[in-house]
Design goal:
Radius of gyration: 20 Å
Order of helices and strands: EEHHHHH
Number of strands: 2
Shape: flat
Number of domains: 2
Structural class: mainly alpha
Strand order of the largest sheet: 1-2
Largest sheet: 2 strands, antiparallel
Protein backbone atom coordinates (compact mmCIF):
# COMPACT_ATOMS: atom_id res chain seq x y z
CA UNK A 1 0.00 0.00 0.00
CA UNK A 2 1.09 3.54 -0.69
CA UNK A 3 1.81 5.74 2.27
CA UNK A 4 -0.55 8.63 2.75
CA UNK A 5 0.98 12.04 2.08
CA UNK A 6 1.79 14.01 5.17
CA UNK A 7 -0.71 16.70 6.08
CA UNK A 8 0.56 20.15 5.25
CA UNK A 9 0.29 22.87 7.81
CA UNK A 10 -1.70 25.86 6.56
CA UNK A 11 0.00 29.17 7.08
CA UNK A 12 -1.90 32.42 7.21
CA UNK A 13 -0.55 34.84 4.63
CA UNK A 14 -0.22 38.50 5.47
CA UNK A 15 1.49 41.47 3.86
CA UNK A 16 5.19 41.82 4.59
CA UNK A 17 6.13 45.05 6.33
CA UNK A 18 9.09 47.05 4.96
CA UNK A 19 11.09 46.51 8.15
CA UNK A 20 10.63 42.73 7.83
CA UNK A 21 12.32 42.70 4.43
CA UNK A 22 15.63 43.39 6.15
CA UNK A 23 15.36 40.38 8.48
CA UNK A 24 17.43 37.29 7.61
CA UNK A 25 15.80 34.33 5.85
CA UNK A 26 16.76 30.99 7.45
CA UNK A 27 18.17 28.64 4.79
CA UNK A 28 19.48 25.22 5.81
CA UNK A 29 20.89 26.40 9.10
CA UNK A 30 22.35 29.59 7.66
CA UNK A 31 20.59 32.87 7.20
CA UNK A 32 20.59 35.12 4.16
CA UNK A 33 19.46 38.74 4.13
CA UNK A 34 15.95 38.97 2.65
CA UNK A 35 16.99 41.73 0.27
CA UNK A 36 19.66 39.46 -1.29
CA UNK A 37 17.18 36.58 -1.63
CA UNK A 38 14.57 38.89 -3.19
CA UNK A 39 17.07 40.42 -5.63
CA UNK A 40 18.12 37.00 -6.88
CA UNK A 41 14.69 35.31 -6.92
CA UNK A 42 12.95 38.20 -8.67
CA UNK A 43 15.56 38.57 -11.39
CA UNK A 44 16.35 42.09 -10.22
CA UNK A 45 19.98 41.14 -9.58
CA UNK A 46 20.44 40.32 -13.26
CA UNK A 47 18.64 43.53 -14.27
CA UNK A 48 20.99 45.52 -12.05
CA UNK A 49 24.01 43.90 -13.68
CA UNK A 50 22.69 44.48 -17.20
CA UNK A 51 21.78 48.12 -16.48
CA UNK A 52 24.68 49.16 -14.27
CA UNK A 53 24.67 52.90 -13.57
CA UNK A 54 21.13 53.51 -14.84
CA UNK A 55 19.81 54.76 -11.49
CA UNK A 56 22.82 57.06 -11.11
CA UNK A 57 22.16 58.55 -14.54
CA UNK A 58 18.48 59.10 -13.65
CA UNK A 59 19.51 60.68 -10.37
CA UNK A 60 21.96 62.99 -12.17
CA UNK A 61 19.11 64.18 -14.38
CA UNK A 62 16.97 65.48 -11.49
CA UNK A 63 18.12 69.09 -11.94
CA UNK A 64 18.36 69.12 -15.74
CA UNK A 65 15.11 67.31 -16.54
CA UNK A 66 12.11 68.90 -14.82
CA UNK A 67 9.31 66.57 -13.81
CA UNK A 68 5.77 67.63 -12.97
CA UNK A 69 5.64 65.02 -10.18
CA UNK A 70 8.55 66.41 -8.14
CA UNK A 71 6.36 68.79 -6.08
CA UNK A 72 3.78 66.06 -5.47
CA UNK A 73 6.48 63.61 -4.38
CA UNK A 74 8.05 66.16 -2.02
CA UNK A 75 4.65 66.96 -0.51
CA UNK A 76 3.75 63.32 0.04
CA UNK A 77 7.03 62.13 1.56
CA UNK A 78 6.18 63.07 5.13
CA UNK A 79 2.81 61.31 4.81
CA UNK A 80 4.31 58.09 3.44
CA UNK A 81 4.63 55.33 6.06
CA UNK A 82 4.11 57.79 8.96
CA UNK A 83 4.15 55.02 11.59
CA UNK A 84 7.13 53.13 10.15
CA UNK A 85 10.19 53.83 12.33
CA UNK A 86 12.59 53.45 9.42
CA UNK A 87 11.07 56.43 7.60
CA UNK A 88 11.25 58.65 10.69
CA UNK A 89 14.77 59.71 9.69
CA UNK A 90 15.40 62.47 7.17
CA UNK A 91 17.96 60.31 5.36
CA UNK A 92 15.44 57.52 4.80
CA UNK A 93 12.82 59.95 3.50
CA UNK A 94 15.41 61.58 1.23
CA UNK A 95 16.31 58.14 -0.15
CA UNK A 96 12.66 57.34 -0.79
CA UNK A 97 12.30 60.71 -2.51
CA UNK A 98 15.24 59.93 -4.80
CA UNK A 99 13.76 56.56 -5.74
CA UNK A 100 10.34 58.08 -6.45
CA UNK A 101 11.86 60.89 -8.54
CA UNK A 102 13.88 58.36 -10.55
CA UNK A 103 10.76 56.22 -11.08
CA UNK A 104 8.80 59.29 -12.23
CA UNK A 105 11.47 59.94 -14.88
CA UNK A 106 11.70 56.29 -15.94
Amino acid sequence: MEAEPEAMELVELRPVLPCELLQPVPVLGNSLPRNKVWLHASGAELQLQQNAGYYSRLQASFDSIPCSYDRVIQGDLSRTFPKERYFASRDALAGLGRVLKAYARY
